[in-house]
Design brief:
With about 130 residues, this protein is mostly helical. The protein is about 45% helix and about 0% strand. The chain is built from five helices and no strands. Helix 2 (about 40-50) packs across helix 5 (about 110-120). The longest helix is centred in the N-terminal third of the chain and has 25 residues, at about 1-25. It is globular and about 35 Å long.
C-alpha cells in the first residue's frame, strides 16, 4: 500500500513538469511588431519629447542636445533597434546615473510608444 501512496504525488509531479516544459516551448516572444498599430511621430512621439525633454533649460536648443524636431531627435536614434538608440536607453536604464529626465522618468506607456516607434523604423510620420 505504501507504494501506491507515493506513486500518485510522483506522477502528479511528472505531469506538472511536463506541462511546465511544454508551456515554455509554446511560449514565444516574437519580435514581430507588424500587427501593432503604427506609432505616429507627429502625434505620438514628438509631444513626449517636447513635454519631457525639450523643456526650458533642458533639451530645448539652449544646451548641447536639441530635441525639439524630428531631425534633431533622429540623430540620437538607431531606426529599427531601440536598444542601440541613445535617447531610448537613457530613458529606460533606471540604474544609470545618466537616466533622463533626471527628475521625472518618462512613463512606461510613453517609453513603450517610443520603443515601438523606433522598432517600426523611427519614421517622420504625420497621422490623421
Amino acid at each position: 500500500m505504501r507504494k501506491n501512496t507515493l506513486f500518485a504525488p510522483f506522477l502528479l509531479c511528472i505531469v506538472a513538469i511536463g506541462f511546465f516544459i511544454g508551456g515554455l516551448s509554446a511560449c514565444r516572444h516574437d519580435d514581430d511588431i507588424s500587427d501593432l498599430p503604427e506609432i505616429c511621430f507627429e502625434t505620438d512621439i514628438l509631444p513626449i519629447f517636447q513635454n519631457s525633454c525639450a523643456v526650458s533649460g533642458c533639451h530645448d536648443g539652449t544646451v548641447e542636445m536639441n530635441l525639439t524636431t524630428y531631425s534633431n531627435i533622429i540623430e540620437h536614434i538607431e531606426p529599427g533597434d531601440a536598444s542601440k538608440s541613445k535617447l531610448y536607453t537613457v530613458m529606460t536604464n533606471t540604474w544609470s546615473p545618466e537616466m533622463m529626465p533626471p527628475d521625472r522618468p518618462v512613463s512606461l506607456q510613453n517609453r513603450t510608444k517610443i520603443k515601438l516607434w523606433i522598432e517600426q523604423g523611427a519614421l517622420e510620420t504625420t497621422c490623421p
